[in-house]
Amino acid sequence: MSAVSPPPFSVLVLAGGRGQRMGGHDKGLLAWHGQPLIAHLQRLLRPLSDDLIISCNRNQALYRSYADQLVGDLEPDFPGPLAGVRAGLRVARHEWLLILACDAPLVDRALIEQLLNLAQTTQAPAMVRQAGFWQPMFSLIPRRLAAPLEQRWQAGERSLQRALRDENLQALDCAEDDRRLSNFNTPEGLR
Q: Among 48, 100, 144, 174, which residue carries the largest CB count within 10 Å?
């Protein structure tokens, strides 16, 4: 990492969706370059954190070897990424939680370091903003936000971006063509 090491942080990989655009397949387990997408992320993340959490609502046995902890949504019917974040915050061992999607294997250490530096400098949640659009699946949030996020969930909020907007959310601006932010939502994208 950088010259001054950041404090330890937990990592939450969100792999709990329906995979509708992938024909119902569990995206994190789909092969890309000969390995499941989750394996690519684990290879990057393992040296960076001793608390790798995967939020998955199915195929837990297949995800087990890639994580220190597994969590699932408390509500049925795949209520979305914020549900996975809530579950991850409940078990995170460190004060900061890096949030990534299982279908974004091109994310790199430099992007993670930038998020960490921004969040540590401002002591506020940080999220990638790509060409003016927020990218909640590339975020770093403090564990202290567990209670406010839970209150917003109970009030009906389901968007991580909207749930964080009153928490001094900081933007890490990235170019529109930044390949590190590519995610594979369709079979064509995976190819």
A: 100
Residues 149-172 pLDDT 10s: 999 999 999 999 999 988 999 999
d(CA 177, CA 76): 36
Instruction: Provide the residue range defining the domain that includes 49.
Output: 10-190
Question: Domain total for the chain?
Answer: 1
Residues 6+ away with beta carbon under 8 Å from 171: 126, 127, 128, 129, 134
Residue with tokens 């990424």: 81
Is 1 part of any domain?
no
> Is 4 a domain residue?
no
Q: How many CB atoms lie within 10 A of CB 168?
A: 11
Give tens-digit pLDDT for 2-27: 445 667 999 999 985 544 454 456 77
> Three-state SS string across the chain, please?
CCCCCCCCCEEEEECCCCCHHHCCCCHHHCEECCEEHHHHHHHHHCCCCCCEEEECCCCHHHHHHHCCEEECCCCCCCCCHHHHHHHHHHHCCCCEEEEEECCCCCCCHHHHHHHHHHHHHHCCCEEEEECCEEEEEEEEEEHHHHHHHHHHHHCCCCCHHHHHCCCCCEEEEECCCCHHHCCCCCHHHHC
Please report, for the domain that includes residue 94, its CATH number.
Answer: 3.90.550.10
